[in-house]
Amino acid sequence: MQSSPGVPCNTTTFKDQLNINDKSTVKKQKLLLLFIAACAIWNSTKAQSYTIESFEGTKVKIHFTRTSSWYGEAFSCLTDTLFLDDYGYAKEIHILKRKFLVIGYYTRGGSGFQCRNTIILSVKNNKINAAILVQSFGKSFGGDIDGSLYKVKFNITGNDKSNFKLIAHIYDRHKSYAHPKTGYIKNKQVIFAFDPDQNIFYTARKKIAESFTIDGSGGESEKLAINETLPVICLDKNTYYYYIKGAWYQTGEGDRLFKSFYKNP
Q1: Is the pTM of this model over 0.85?
Q2: What is the mean pLDDT of the chain?
Q3: Average pLDDT over residues 229-233
Q4: Residues near 172 by Cβ (< 8 Å), separated by ≥ 6?
Q5: Where are the domains positioned within the chain?
Q6: Distance from C-alpha of 4 to C-alpha of 105, rounded to nearest angstrom
Q7: Are strands 71-77 and 59-66 parallel, antiparallel or unpaired?
Q8: Is the model's pLDDT at 100 over the cut of 70?
Q9: Contact at 8 Å (CB) between 205 and 242?
Q10: What is the side-by-side order of every strand in the sheet holding 89-96?
């Protein structure tokens, strides 16, 4: 059919119009979803702030901020910031004895293994302190392993820095289809003392005279020679945590130490 002279021909069919309407609707839906996601992220960021009592007795806020570098999360209070490495997302956050913020968080993990760490933060002299930083959950699965589980729950007793104690309740279970006799279930408690000068919990003090290789989160490594008595955390016979110059280090194979958080200069 030819169009009349001077009158433009309308080639848009009803089907085409439906497609245009559908595309417009999809676009609006996408914009709506982006708006909802942005609001959720904004609300989540806004909510990531917790008020605790400093060791001077004042109320202070610890803020959570996601970082774009290899540091997964930053915790800030006033002018001080602590950066956590290998941070996935928080599993649980709660306050103990008004002064301690307990954060259980997933690390990035690996194939066939889930892992969570727990860091306990406090504030003294306007500075954030990591009272502990340890692995508190591990779950293996796949292959011939079924039901291997390691988890730690923490509680604090005492009323002030003179008598604070940290209690770790540890559940450790291992099962194997191929080697059923190697299976076990263990329950135990570990009691930590509190150092009021450094604001940390520890299970023992140990004389260390050794040279270590410290592996950083960016792939770099450095040598560190230690010859002193250090606060130590030991939750099982295979893993130790050393408190060296204001930071916790986890032992690895051989002379390796791993540092999981960093402070601003």
Answers
A1: no
A2: 82
A3: 98
A4: 149, 150, 184, 185, 186, 187, 188, 236
A5: 46-201
A6: 72
A7: antiparallel
A8: yes
A9: no
A10: 89-96, 100-106, 113-124, 127-142, 145-157, 165-174, 184-195, 200-202
**Which residues lie closer than 8 Å to 171 by C-beta, 6 or more apart?**
149, 150, 151, 152, 185, 186, 187
3-state secondary structure at position 87: coil
What three-state secondary structure class fits 37?
helix
**Beta strands 256-259; 204-215: pairing state:** parallel
How many CB atoms lie under 10 A from the CB of residue 117? 23
Read off the tokens for 218.
Answer: 């960016």
Is the model more confident about 244 or about 29? 244
CA distance 248 to 64: 20
| Residue 209 CA from chain centroid, whole number | 30
Chain centroid offset of residue 181 CA: 34
Give the Cα separation of 120 and 221 in Å (integer). 26
pLDDT at 46 exceeding the cut of 50: no
Give me the residue label for tokens 């050794």. Answer: 210
Helix H segments across the chain? 14-47
Burial letters for 197-208: b for 16+ Cβ neighbours within 10 Å, e otherwise? eebbbbbeeeee
> Can you tell me which residue has the tokens 């408690």?
189
Six-digit token string for 47: 């909510």
Q: 3-class SS at 248?
A: strand
What CA–CA distance (Å, rounded) separates 256 from 213?
Answer: 5
pLDDT digits (tens, 9 = 90+) for 176-214: 877 888 889 999 999 999 999 999 999 999 999 999 999
Determine the Cα–Cα distance for residues 207 and 195; give it in Å rounded to an integer.
17
First-residue to last-residue Cα distance in the chain? 79
- Asked whether the beta carbons of 148 and 79 are under 8 A apart, the reply is no
